C-alpha cells in the first residue's frame, strides 16, 4: 500500500509532470525516447521499447505481473482478494504501449493467493491462471536463493508517473539500488514493521526514482551469473513514491520460491528455469542497401540440441526498420528467418524472437545475419544474444 497503504493500484516508475488526454482520462505523456540503460539520475525512468521486457503483463485491476509459465502470471497478493475461481481479470501481454493493436489479451479463470499474506510470515504474492496459454510467451524465471538479492535492480511498469498521479499508457523502466534491511527499517516509522525474511528494500536514497501506484505485482529483476534476467522481487508497498529516504518494499521472491513453484505445479504448469545466455556486444555497421553482415556468438557447455523455444534477442539501431532482413544462422548453416523487410518506418529493432531450433546441436558458432535491402537509411547491430 503506497502512501502508508499498500500499493493497491500497483507502482509506477518515477515522476513525470506532463499530462495528456488518453481514453477520457488524464494520463502521463510519453517520456523522452530511451537513450540507453536507465540510471537512477533519470527522474521517472525512461520508456521501455517493445520486446525489451517481453514477459511483462498489465492486469485490468491496475496491477502489473510477469509470465511465470505460458498460462500463469505472477503478481502481488494485495492485487487480488482471495483464492478461487475468478473470471474478472484481463491480462495484456506483448506490448510496451497499451494501445498497440498487436497486444495479446487473456481473461483469468482462477487465482491462487498466498495463504501467508497479511500474517507475520508475510508473502505478498499471487498467481493468476489464464483461460488459455499464450503460445511462445517469454517467461521470467524466479530466484530460488538469496544470491541475487543485492546490487542494482531493474523495475518496470505502467503505473503512476508521479505520486497519486494517473497511470501510464507506456511501459517505463528504471534502476534502483539494494538497501539493506537495517537501513530500510531505520528509514522512518513506516518501515518499522519490515519483515526481513519476506521483504526486500530498494530505491535511490536521494529520491526521484521509484515504483508507484499501479505497478504493484510487477517484477523487480536483475541479471544472474549467466546474464539472464531473473526475478528477485515483486512490487509490494512503500511510503509514497520516489520520496527521498523512503525506499520501495518488494516481496522477497526467493523466500517464497518453493511455495510459488508448488502452486504452479498444482495449477498445472512448470516454472521457467534460468537459461544460459551467450551474447555479442560488438557493434557491426550495416551497409546501406548493401551486402549482408554477420555477428557471431559461440555457444559452449550446453548439452544436446537447442530448445524448441530458443530466444534470440536483438538490439539493432537503424533509422528505418522496414529496410532490414534478419536471419539466424545455425552452426550447420541452416537459416531461420527472423524478420522480413516491410514498409515500416519506425526506427530500431529491439525485440526477442522465438525459434524452434530443436533439430540443431546447441554448441558451435551461431550467426546473426542482417541485410539492408533499401537505400537512404543506415544503422548497426548494437548487440544480440541467445538464451538456452
From TrEMBL:
<keyword id="KW-0720">Serine protease</keyword>
<dbReference type="InterPro" id="IPR002884">
    <property type="entry name" value="P_dom"/>
</dbReference>
<feature type="signal peptide">
    <location>
        <begin position="1"/>
        <end position="28"/>
    </location>
</feature>
<dbReference type="InterPro" id="IPR018114">
    <property type="entry name" value="TRYPSIN_HIS"/>
</dbReference>
<dbReference type="GO" id="GO:0006508">
    <property type="term" value="P:proteolysis"/>
</dbReference>
<dbReference type="Pfam" id="PF00089">
    <property type="entry name" value="Trypsin"/>
</dbReference>
<keyword id="KW-0378">Hydrolase</keyword>
<feature type="domain" description="P/Homo B">
    <location>
        <begin position="269"/>
        <end position="388"/>
    </location>
</feature>
<keyword id="KW-1015">Disulfide bond</keyword>
<dbReference type="InterPro" id="IPR008979">
    <property type="entry name" value="Galactose-bd-like_sf"/>
</dbReference>
<feature type="domain" description="Peptidase S1">
    <location>
        <begin position="42"/>
        <end position="265"/>
    </location>
</feature>
<dbReference type="InterPro" id="IPR043504">
    <property type="entry name" value="Peptidase_S1_PA_chymotrypsin"/>
</dbReference>
<dbReference type="InterPro" id="IPR033116">
    <property type="entry name" value="TRYPSIN_SER"/>
</dbReference>
<dbReference type="InterPro" id="IPR001254">
    <property type="entry name" value="Trypsin_dom"/>
</dbReference>
<dbReference type="InterPro" id="IPR001314">
    <property type="entry name" value="Peptidase_S1A"/>
</dbReference>
<keyword id="KW-0645">Protease</keyword>
<protein>
    <submittedName>
        <fullName>Proprotein convertase P-domain-containing protein</fullName>
    </submittedName>
</protein>
<dbReference type="GO" id="GO:0004252">
    <property type="term" value="F:serine-type endopeptidase activity"/>
</dbReference>
<keyword id="KW-0732">Signal</keyword>
<dbReference type="Pfam" id="PF01483">
    <property type="entry name" value="P_proprotein"/>
</dbReference>
<dbReference type="InterPro" id="IPR009003">
    <property type="entry name" value="Peptidase_S1_PA"/>
</dbReference>
